[in-house]
Amino acid sequence: MKRVVLTGNGLSVALNSEFGLQSITERFFGRLDDSHREFIKHHMKDKYSQLDFEEAIASIEQVFDSLEHYQKFLFSDNGNNFMNAYELSNQEFEAHLKAIQTIIHEYTSSILDLIINNVRQKDIEEKLQPFVDWSLETIDTSDEIDLFTLNFDLLLETILLTYYDKSNFADFHYRGKKWDAIDDEYQYYFDPDRSRQIHPENYTKNIRLHHLHGSLSSFKDLRTGRIFKITTDSLREHNLYENIFELGVLPSIVTGGGKSLKVQQNPFHYYYTEFKKKMVIDDELCDELYIIGYSFRDEHINKAIAERIVKERREDKPFKMVIVDYAKDDATKLEFLQRVNKALKLGRKYAIELGDERVLFDGANSVKDLPINV
């Protein structure tokens, strides 16, 4: 039995309400000084809202991308000719770019720092134990299982590391050099091929963990361009996010605008490709897909799932899909189902309606009642 589990922000919110978009956004704006607040307000224009952190980051990124593109022109031969012709100078331009980039990285990092210590085993046991029990049984009865998360937190890692040895699952990194920033603990470099070659034991049980949008423990070295992660314990024991710019690294995550472009870069491209394989490649197809706390707002994910549904109908490829959401009232449930039907292009004939057994509205712990096919 080949299974895929996809988790979104709803699962994290079930663990801690502070992970909700509105709560994170309020903290984000609360940390802005007046000059940065006015900068964001100006560029968001009619989209200005203190309820959407990602929209705010996206507005700054758009400014940065435009200025960076113009800077590349200025440093070209044509750009030099242009400046000479009009007696222009770009001495301040690079400083402007650096200031804007600092806003993006500084405030994104400050939000990630808030999340670090909010995934605790005690809270998982208290709030999500039925989900954990279901997850363990699902993993143990699968021939292959791929866990895909859209969240930055380390919830799934914490569950896996609590109940399995770290050699029992793959995260596509291999052990690299020691890093003095974390008391000479190891960095783990992202490289799926070398990971499988160096650490074959991680792949024998066919349990694989994919961070579609990156994670708190994943970074990019600005000097080498290398993507690496550190252990959960190292992350929690050191104040990396307080000194992140001095260390010359950035969080390796996808947030804000331009997600369709960002996911073309590794490690995100690799993870998305792996998800698509499970939906469209015959030899890789999953038999079961469990979607928990996902809002169906990622076009890449939606398109892949839609293709798997089509393969079931047109090519007789059996497929079980279960969607778990947290909507409470009928109006909110209907709104969610409309979004799902549109995202998966189900049409009137195949549309999911209220009462459909494929959708559970009682949160992640409701999966405990699902029958496990062996």
Task: Please characterize this protein's 3D structure.
With 374 residues, this protein is α/β, with parallel strands linked by helices. Helices cover 48% and strands 16% of the residues. The protein has 15 helices and eleven strands. It has helices at residues 9-15, 21-31, 34-44, 53-74, 77-86, 93-116, 121-140, 155-163, 192-198, 232-237, 259-262, 268-280, 299-315, 330-343, 347-350; strands at 2-7, 144-149, 173-179, 185-190, 207-211, 214-221, 227-229, 249-253, 288-292, 320-324, 359-360. A six-stranded parallel sheet has the order 5-2-1-9-10-11. A hairpin with a 5-residue loop joins strand 6 (214-221) and strand 7. Helix 2 (21-31) packs across helix 6 (93-116) and helix 3 (34-44) crosses helix 4 (53-74). The protein starts with a strand and ends in a 14-residue tail after the last strand. The model has no long low-confidence stretch (mean pLDDT 85).
The order of strands across the largest sheet is 5-2-1-9-10-11
Structural class, by secondary structure, is alpha/beta
> Helicity level, as a percent range?
40-55%
| Global morphology | globular
Rg: 22 Å
Largest sheet: 6 strands, parallel
* Total number of beta strands: 11
Reading the helices and strands in chain order gives EHHHHHHHEHEEHEEEHEHHEHEHHE
Instruction: Indicate the multimeric state.
Output: single chain
The tally of helices reads 15
- The overall average pLDDT, rounded, is 85
Percentage of residues in strands: 15-25%
Low-confidence stretches: none
Measured between the Cα atoms of the first and last residue, the distance is: 7 Å
